[in-house]
Design brief:
Blueprint (H helix, E strand, L loop, with lengths): L2 E6 L7 H13 L4 E6 L17 E4 L16 H14 L3 E5 L4 H7 L6 E5 L9 H9 L6 E4 L2 H9 L5 E3 L18 E5 L8 H11 L5 E5 L5 H10 L6 E4 L5 H7 L2 E4 L8 H8 L4 E4 L5 H4 L6 E4 L4 H11 L3 H18 L2 H11 L1
Parallel strand pairs: 1-2, 1-4, 2-3, 4-5, 5-6, 6-7, 8-9, 8-11, 9-10, 11-12, 12-13
Helix pairs in contact: 2-3, 6-11, 9-12
Length: about 350
């Protein structure tokens, strides 16, 4: 049985990268011998996602220096620790989760004959200029680089990066009953960070104020209190509900009738795929790089110019007036998502490169 090793920084955060790392490991463990190696110490009680008993988890019990400005940024200790584990497990293939970790995985396996696949979840321009530069050259140090969208692939190829493969994320949420689209709830899900643009969403909500509707924002993060304060200043606290991150996100999808994405930038938005799979139409900023690859404008959702608060407000006001249109778009969303983003569909794409 072929051995696969997924290498990631940590598994303690409720975020898309961590979730997909666990989901992919679980999926591949049906046919492969799969291990996950984390840099940070892994504690089962801190992991928000269920890991299959078939998946072995090991840790470097270290930390990752993300800077490019000191000797510590060479991560020499991490390279030595990871090489030791690779010699112990000797996988045929490593999947390095997030391009920055190639700084560790690539030198660690020199001379070992192990294939290395980079798996990048954000577009090439997300983050710092130094990060963009590194992501541009990192594909030269692995066998293949998997990105999540066709737009991401175009950006990498413009930088002359070799062996770029597009494999989108998947979700197993489709086994649940979809939303019946009967409650006047507009749902947003994500970390309270600048990237997610909840400040833009709240300003748009204040301009639209659909009669009888509630905006529910599910998530935690350092800007949550700022967003709660902003809702109060805008005079919309009575129509906005802030909820913490939850392992029962299915219930939030089932209780909503429309999903909204206000991000300034994204990789492939897993929560948007989940919303579609749960039968929700979506209103999204057309931000780089993925909403337009997930949402079919005018069919199962609606795209508005990125960071345009007035356009988002108008679209929210227009679409939430017509529950029948929402139901029809939601039905089409679920059919499309089950076809494109099911575990079975995505597993075969990974097997083609493993």
């Amino acid at each position: 049985m072929k051995k696969i090793l997924l290498f990631c920084e940590a598994l303690r955060n409720r975020a898309g990268i961590e979730r997909m790392t666990v989901e992919l490991a679980n999926l591949l463990s049906e046919d492969y011998k799969v291990s996950i190696v984390t840099i940070d110490l892994f504690k089962a009680e801190e992991c928000p996602y269920a890991v299959s008993p078939k998946v072995k988890i090991m840790s470097l019990n270290s930390s990752f220096n993300k800077t490019f400005s000191s000797l510590k940024s060479l991560n020499i200790r991490n390279i030595r620790l990871f090489r030791k584990i690779c010699k112990e497990l000797y996988p045929e293939v490593i999947i390095t989760v997030a391009t920055p970790l190639i700084r560790i995985s690539a030198p660690a396996i020199i001379g070992l004959g192990i294939r290395n696949i980079g798996w990048e979840h954000f577009n090439i321009f997300a983050g710092s200029k130094a990060g963009t530069l590194f992501k541009s050259v990192a594909p030269w140090f692995v066998d293949k680089t998997v990105v999540l969208t066709e737009a991401d692939a175009v950006d990498y190829r413009k930088k002359k990066a070799p062996d770029i493969i597009v494999i989108p994320n998947f979700t197993s949420i489709g086994s649940n009953n979809p939303s019946r689209i009967e409650n006047k709830v507009l749902l947003a899900v994500g970390r309270h960070s600048e990237q997610k643009g909840f400040d833009l969403l709240l300003k748009a909500w204040a301009k639209s104020k659909p009669q009888g509707w509630l905006l529910t924002i599910v998530g935690d993060g350092k800007l949550k209190e700022d967003n709660i304060d902003l809702a109060e200043k805008l005079g919309i606290s009575d129509s906005v509900i802030f909820k913490p991150s939850t392992p029962n996100i299915v219930e939030e999808f089932q209780n909503a009738s429309c999903f909204v994405l206000s991000s300034r930038y994204e990789g492939l938005v897993l929560v948007l795929i989940e919303a579609k799979t749960m039968g929700l139409p979506s209103i999204c900023f057309d931000c780089p790089n993925s909403p337009r690859e997930v949402i079919r404008h005018g069919i199962d959702g609606w795209l508005v110019p990125s960071e345009n608060i007035d356009a988002l407000a108008k679209e929210i006001e227009l679409r939430l007036k017509d529950i029948d249109t929402l139901r029809l778009a939601g039905e089409k969303a679920r059919i499309d998502a089950l076809k494109r983003y099911s575990p079975e569909a995505i597993k075969s794409q990974w097997e083609n490169i493993l």
